[in-house]
Amino acid sequence: MRPYQTIILLTVIIAVAVFLHFRSLRVDPRIERVANCFVELALLHLSSDTTSATFTAQRDSVLNSMGFTELSFREMKADLEREPEKLIDAWDLVDKKLKVRKEALDIVKP
To answer: Is 37 in contact with 68 (CB distance < 8 Å)?
Structure first.
């Protein structure tokens, strides 16, 4: 091969590798939606009486604000459970988001 052909081939291979690497870093939008919903539901669960009728209404309100019904949320969670690596990613994201919320509350406290 001529030197310029080698350089072009290596450049193309490197460009494809970089593209694939950055593409793999993107978070599945389902994971983001489920994680956000889990965080809000967890905070609601911690801050209210889960046996009251108002909790159910508040839970449904949180689900609706996230674009879910109870059934659609359960279905999306079941879909993620079929792909354990994505479910792990979702729980990791939930953990990170809860830590950020906790840190924000710790900063506000006197």
So the answer is: yes
Beta-strand ranges (E) seen in the chain are none
CA distance 90 to 106: 24
Closest by Cα among 71, 88, 72, 82 to 31: 88
* CA–CA separation, 102 and 100 (whole Å): 5
Q: How many CB atoms lie within 10 A of CB 18?
A: 10
* Nearest Cα residue to 34 out of 26, 22, 42: 42
Give the span between the Cα atoms of 32 and 37, in whole angstroms: 9
In terms of Cα–Cα distance, which of 99, 97, 89 is closest to 29? 89
pLDDT per residue as tens digits for the range 63-106: 999 899 989 999 988 988 898 888 888 899 899 998 988 888 77
Whether the pTM exceeds 0.90: the reply is no
